[in-house]
Amino acid sequence: MLEKVIKACKKAGEEILEVYSKEFTVEEKEDRTPVTEADRRAHRIITEELKETRIPVLSEEGKEIPFKERRKWKRFWLVDPLDGTKEFIKKNGEFTVNVALVEEGEPVLGVVYAPALEVLYFAEKGNGAYREVKGKMEKLPIGNWSRENLRVVASRSHMNEETKKFLENLEKKFGKLQFLSKGSSLKICMVAEGSADIYPRIAPTMEWDTGAGHAVAKEAGCELFVYEEGKLREPLRYNKEDLRNPSFVCLSLEIKELVEATGGFEPP
């Protein structure tokens, strides 16, 4: 099924780039988030490609599915046809197509494709995580997580007061931080590949924003932990009644040991 998902994501990417190359209109959904024709086209392609798997699909651009129906699902496809619509609108290339297979609340297969950058990340439980750049494939992680000069990747759009406080506490404990910025689920992938050490997200996200990247991170030796009161809790779970994610921190298990040895993320 991994090959099928990669094919679906690349086909969706082609449609997205066709819209991206022209003038396009931006609409606003009921939740006041932007949506474009590219989102809709990608959704149609992915759902059509996955139809023959006979596994239900939960997509950001699909119809709302009541929890009383979803709760019966043992596994399902979790889809964000265009993650980073704001990046798409700004035309900075940092948007992705995300597809994950979730089993019993855990992402076990994930594909993150950035069509404008020609970068593909994919993983399957037990078979490792990989990055393909313009046809060249490498197993993740590629770089090394730093125990000296922590590299923190954060969102340009969601640098709220809670995140600033988190980073200030981190700097007090570990010294000067190196700040990196990236759009969409590429932030999770940066931690997975070893080009960043920590990605804190102390702001709202939805399950489809993280599922595919989470699968890649897990197979690369990382995890997305719920963050609460200065502590890392359990890993994120999926197909909750409320599809919003709690605050979380993405980091390698190696860096997690370092952080916990110094008392976690609480202020020094």
UniProtKB/TrEMBL annotation:
GO BP annotations listed: 3'-phosphoadenosine 5'-phosphosulfate metabolic process; sulfate assimilation
Reactions the enzyme catalyzes: adenosine 3',5'-bisphosphate + H2O = AMP + phosphate
Enzyme class: hydrolase
MF GO annotations: 3'(2'),5'-bisphosphate nucleotidase activity; magnesium ion binding
Cofactor(s) the protein needs: Mg(2+)
Compartment list: Cell inner membrane
Residues holding Mg(2+) 1: E60, D80, L82, D83, D209
Matches recorded under InterPro entries: CysQ, CysQ/Inositol_MonoPase, Inositol_monoP_metal-BS, Inositol_monophosphatase-like
CDD domains according to UniProt: CysQ
EC nos: 3.1.3.7
Keywords from the named record: Cell inner membrane, Cell membrane, Hydrolase, Magnesium, Membrane, Metal-binding
Free-text function comment from the UniProt entry: Converts adenosine-3',5'-bisphosphate (PAP) to AMP.
Family stated for the protein in its record: Belongs to the inositol monophosphatase superfamily. CysQ family.
Protein's name in the database: 3'(2'),5'-bisphosphate nucleotidase CysQ
Species annotation: Aquifex aeolicus (strain VF5)
